[in-house]
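Notes, Module 5: Reading structure tokens.

Key idea: the token line is not a picture. It is a compressed description, and you learn to read it the same way you learned to read a sequence, by spotting repeated patterns. We will look at two proteins. The first is printed below with its tokens.
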Amino acid sequence: MRKGIPATLLIISTWIIGCSKSSDENGIFDRLSYHQPEGYKDSLLVGTLKVFENRDDRKGRRIPLHIAVTPALVRDSLKEPIFIVDGGPGIGVSHQSYFYTEIDTTYRRYHDIVFVDVRGTGKSQPLHCFELQTKASPQEHFDTPYPQEELEACIEMYEDSIDFNFYATEYVVEDLEEVRKWLGYKKINLLGISFGGKVSLMFMDMYPNSINRAVLHAPAAPDIDALSHRGRYAQQALDLLFDYCSKDSLCNSGFPGIRQEFEILMKRIMGEQVRVDIGTTDTVYNVELSWPPIASKIAGLLYEDGSYIKIPYIIHEAYLENYDPLFDAIDIYNTETNYFFADGMFLSNICAEDIPGAIRNYDVKEKDSFLGDYVFQTRRAACASWPVKPVDESIHESVISDIPTLIVSGQLDPVLPPETGAAISKRLVDSQHIVIPYMGHVFSDLSNLDCYDTYVVSFFEGEEGSLDKQCFDEMKPNPFMLSMQTENDSILNVPD
């Protein structure tokens, strides 16, 4: 690791020392310390702010919130900082600092980029459930995701030190407002992703004078119940993907009967016991396949373009009783603990906020989808023993605001499709809703990504009016995978 402060930050520091602070300057250099993470050429400013776990009584245990800031490059023309709020709930956001610091400096030119690992995630005392977050054998990928004994082990691990009731979204929002004040910012921009969209909307409602503008990427919302509709939403996305395949000459030629093959595959695994030997020459596992977990894995592959382009090939090979591509896609041999997601935070939040409404809204028609009601039922079962109380019903009221807001939805999103983004947009007086035709929940390898970044940054600066939104239609995925040897750098060619 290189020692010392990079030249860019030395220049920034010299400017601050040699000149009086502008009216737009803040306290990040006073509150935080320089840190150069391994693999970074530039440095971040990092620190912790201790907040009460029990924000209601403001006493007792404190949580050290991990905060990282990528400082703006042009500090004599500072604009409002951009707070990145990630999804889950249960995902820390500080892992994203590399992109905004090292890969794309568009966002940080005039804006500090602020990453707060919200309570219970990332480096802010994450509520990991180690047994739940570890697959000890390939068979566990096809078993229930929340075994009772593993749930009980996680609860027991925290029961003497944690009150799971204080990991609801309103406390996350209050933490972010405290961070804003502590860092000395007058107003902030919010870039909320998925669950981060819900956090952002509640921030807009609770602290409207603290926010300048908001961008909500595939957002959840306090009044939207996506959990009870997961089957229908996943089916919509898969049907659209099959449509794209049928309109793509190579995909259609390679998999002309993909819909029928999918139906046959599903009925086969649902209707009979399917066992498969997998493994290496040293270790062989005899795995019993189960359709609901497989359907959940397929729905997960729909999340982003880098994986959904593999789905027709994976289905075709599984139809031919070659399940290796499916096993590779879900990383079936990986037995390491997944620290990316904190299941304790996830369950504490959804069991208190999402499950009560999903139970009321549940429609048995969900079972008609390829995913069925598997996601809803497994989470409902897990929440039956998770020790939290339902939040007050007022938390689910619609957010009505005149704060300028950009909402971005993916046409292929299997979790929060465009219809949920449109519903949010209707209640925001000054909002735009953009649908990206080839985006899932997030994107990875879509072409023309500059379109997204340029528009988002221009929106934060109130200058997006002169930009052409048609460029979002040119954000296209790589070609569908046709075989394990497919190597093609061209773009998926789907007629309009």
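Here is the second protein, with the sequence above and the tokens below, as before.
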Amino acid sequence: MKGVGEPPPPLAVGPHHCYIVCREAAARVRSHISPGPYRSLRELSLAGSVDPDIWCPPTFVGNSGIECSNGVSGFALLYSLICLPNLFSSRKRKRLPSDRMPDLPATPSKGKLRAAALAARDKLSGRQRTAAAAALAARGLPVEITAGTVVAGYSPIRNEIDPAPLMQSLALRGARLALPAVPARGKSLAFRAWSPQDRLMLGPLGIPEPSPAAAELVPDIILVPLAAFDRLGHRIGYGAGHYDHTLAHLRKSKPVTTIGLAFAAQEIEAIPALQHDVALDYVLTETKLFDFRGS
């Protein structure tokens, strides 16, 4: 006959035997757990002793009637805590496709795309820039120009393609020319009348623009400078949003055709467009005309 303090014989650790022992452990534990509600929040949340001589797991709720680990019930509980994890960890888990997300290609930010396009533009020589501006003038615009058609251009900065030769050729065909006056950030542009003989003054941002005394015109066609473009008509500017605000404002009262002017080197594969970004109708480069009206 076994003594009171004698430990039980070693148990087999096979899955079937472990299942039987775990059931016995659960039954014995349930018989020692109080059926009533827990006594305090500390019993539910804190690790430690429910009784000064008996340690219980953090989420244990019940009385202190569980025997120590050298007793029958205590050993069954201890064995179940050790056996169950070993049982399940011994089986090989199949990796599900959802265990690991596939590596997705990183989408470059507008800032990185802008920097890459501007770097490509800056590599062009002075001779290439002059030839490209002349090519735009020779190609002309893809829309009809009649007497009085208001065409707004821009004063080139940061190595932008120069629209002056094109605008001069449009003036010879009867177009009225205008240049933008740049207001504060996030505000719509104002377009003031301009002719190639007029002197310009520096605006608040250091960009040449017509005098405030010049007549303000509402353009029918806007020649839009840009840092980069893609084949869906999306454009990257310099981040101030002037043209997006302006087009949204002007198109509330009349249709306005937008034509981006750029070097062919400024084309990129795709631009992440946002809801407020306004797509262009055309982009004109020294080598090709892009028509986005059906996009």
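Summary for the second protein:
- The chain is about 30% helix and 15% strand.
- The chain has two domains: 15-89, 110-291.
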